[in-house]
Design a protein that fits this description.
20 helices, about 625 residues, 13 strands, alpha+beta, globular
Length: about 625
């Protein structure tokens, strides 16, 4: 008991954070279950002109059908039933069987059936994907019909098929509970081991990033994150030589892509793990292409997809299969994001713990193993902030290596998302004497400014042409920006109505396959607990802590960059995504604000605890 008490007292902060994270994860899973997947027969990709519908009468003897299914669980099944206007007493029963036998039998009364509409039968069971056998029975004093169809697209068979509508989730909750417990336990053990062995923060970051990254790769199917479909198409178009987007006569931007016919073609590609494994052999060739639009991603600069493009080019040299190529694109994004964050942990004079906690957030990890460029934007701003803090608060000389790094970071920010280039102003926090002379200082400032501004201006010119031609509301909304008070009222109304959504989205409510439905209050309490824990000051402060606290210029610069970038995000989405005349701004996602996390923690928590600096 004494040993347990001593262990708890010496590690209570780590254990408290582990308990909070586990509670949050369990509530998260309880209120959701992940990405909702929908499957229909006939599929939406089929030529509807070749499909003929009819009503098949069913009675107590039942009618059996074989249908195709593509997930490992089944939440509910929908059938289109037909009845008389005044149905009598009776029940409709549906029995679902897979290759191992009967999965479940569900039923509803005649009074629950709306003739001609889809009637849903809850199942909530695990199934073996592939061929399911569905038997429909009716027991009552009213005739019942079920919708069936024949598919002229299939020349190999003209049999009658059952019209079905399936709803599933990406994962069974039992598996998610187990995965959550394992992740929290593993991270807690790593922190306890690091504390006992005096492992450095960079080493701890690498271990956590790699281990959790592997788990996220195993959990998330390809293109599972929000907007991943069109990010992949934009990156793949660049990798195959279509660097600058071209608008067709219909005002659309897209291209021919080899794409499995059972994958959705929208921004988010909702597929199950079964589909990913089933379609692993799918090959990319000229015989299976289809035109798919990616206009909403055409505004992204080609440079912001460099890691993904590198993965795709290597993948295309090794194989012609789509899924492995996507995996390699994700892997390169994960490695590059991790490398930049690792450098940030090494370079920053304080706040190493901040970066580690930020990198382990569910949304950051999901973006890191995804294909969208958002994780790289977060890593770039975090690294730039860390580098500026190092040059401001330590005796580190501004060598050509550091100057080159600052220049490349500023250039990259201008290309990843133009609005983030505001954080290049943090360079003015570097003491002038570090440059050696005023002449060198002015030369460096002008050189970095030109290197940042010219490519940004060039891509802004290209993207502005796309914006004017392809977005109907862009011109009228741009006129609104000429009236600042009107726009500020729209912005204020947006923050009131959607501010809570942005917080939840940043925490993980819009993670595709791992989206959660936890209450906003729970999210806020957890975020406050994290901020208080990682920014907790000790009673004894070093000279650095005092300098950071008294640094008014640092606080003004960080506050200004965060507020100005936030304003630019809302302005950009107002012009690009918001319908003319709308009272609120559409298109803003909570993940757009994740790159602010490290600057915000530096602003709010300062230099952190003495313990962190001594053992880093």
């Amino acid at each position: 008991m004494r040993l347990f008490k001593s262990f708890f007292l010496s590690n209570w902060k780590i254990l408290l954070m582990a308990a909070a994270a586990l509670l949050f994860a369990l509530l998260w899973i309880h209120d959701s279950g992940g990405n909702i997947l929908s499957y229909d027969n006939p599929e939406s990709t089929e030529d509807v002109s070749q499909i003929s519908y009819a009503s098949k009468s069913i009675d107590h003897s039942g009618a059996a059908f074989t249908v195709n299914y593509k997930a490992w669980n089944l939440q509910k099944v929908g059938l289109r039933l037909y009845m008389e206007d005044t149905p009598g007493d009776g029940t409709v029963s549906v029995t679902i069987s897979d290759s191992s036998g009967v999965v479940d039998t569900v039923s509803c009364s005649y009074s629950d059936v709306v003739s001609g509409d889809v009637t849903w039968f809850p199942v909530n069971k695990s199934v073996k994907p592939g061929s399911l056998r569905i038997t429909v029975e009716a027991a009552g004093n009213t005739a019942v019909g079920v919708s069936v169809y024949t598919d002229g697209n299939d020349t190999t068979s003209i049999q009658t098929r059952l019209e079905t509508h399936f709803v599933a989730v990406e994962f069974n909750k039992e598996y998610l509970y187990l995965a959550a417990v394992l992740m929290v336990m593993m991270t807690t053990i790593l922190f306890l081991m690091a504390k006992g062995m005096r492992v450095s923060w960079p080493q701890l970051f690498l271990v956590c990033w790699v281990i959790l990254g592997i788990l996220y790769f195993l959990i998330l199917p390809v293109l599972a994150e929000s907007d991943a479909g069109n990010h992949f198409r934009r990156a793949f178009a660049i990798a195959t030589g279509r660097i600058f987007p071209v608008m067709n006569a219909q005002g659309d931007i897209g291209g021919e892509f080899s794409w499995p016919n059972n994958w959705t073609e929208g921004d988010s590609v909702q597929i199950s793990f079964y589909q990913q494994l089933h379609d692993w052999p799918f090959k990319m060739n000229a015989d299976n292409t289809t035109y798919i639009s990616y206009k909403n991603m055409a505004l992204y600069s080609p440079l912001c997809y460099l890691p993904q493009i590198a993965g795709m080019l290597i993948g295309r040299m090794l194989t012609d299969r789509l899924v492995p190529i996507i995996f390699l694109a994700r892997l390169f994004n994960f490695l590059c994001t991790g490398a930049l964050l690792y450098l940030a942990v090494r370079l920053t004079p304080f706040g190493k713990k901040y970066i580690l906690w930020i990198s382990l957030l569910p949304m950051v990890m999901e973006l890191g193993v995804g294909i969208a460029p958002d994780s790289m934007a977060l890593a770039l701003i975090t690294l730039l902030t860390a580098l500026v803090l190092r040059l401001r608060y330590t005796d580190t000389a501004l060598t050509p290596k550091y100057l080159c790094g600052i220049s490349l970071l500023s250039l990259a920010l201008s290309q990843y998302k133009l609005v983030y280039v505001v954080f290049s102003l943090l360079l003015f926090l570097i003491p002038q004497q570090k440059f050696g002379s005023r002449k060198k200082y002015l030369g460096a400032v002008c050189g970095i400014g030109v290197l940042t501004a010219v490519p940004a201006a060039l891509w802004l010119h290209v993207s502005s042409g796309i914006l004017k031609a392809g977005y109907s509301g862009a011109s009228s909304n741009a006129e609104v920006l000429r009236h600042p008070l009107h726009f500020l009222m729209i912005l204020f109304r947006t923050l009131i109505e959607k501010g809570g959504d942005y917080v939840q989205q940043a925490a993980g409510s819009n993670m595709g396959a791992l989206s959660f439905g936890t209450d906003l209050l729970i999210v806020l309490l957890l975020l406050i607990l994290f901020a208080v824990n990682i920014g907790r000051e000790q009673a004894s402060h070093t000279e650095l802590t005092g300098r950071v606290r008294a640094d008014r210029k640092l606080r003004l610069m960080l506050t200004g960059c965060i507020l100005l970038t936030s304003l630019l995000i809302f302005m950009a989405e107002f012009v690009q995504w918001t319908d003319a005349g709308s009272k609120v701004i559409d298109g803003v996602q909570g993940r757009y604000f994740l790159p602010f996390l490290f600057p915000v923690l530096v602003l709010v928590c300062g230099a952190g605890s003495r313990e962190e600096r001594v053992h880093s």
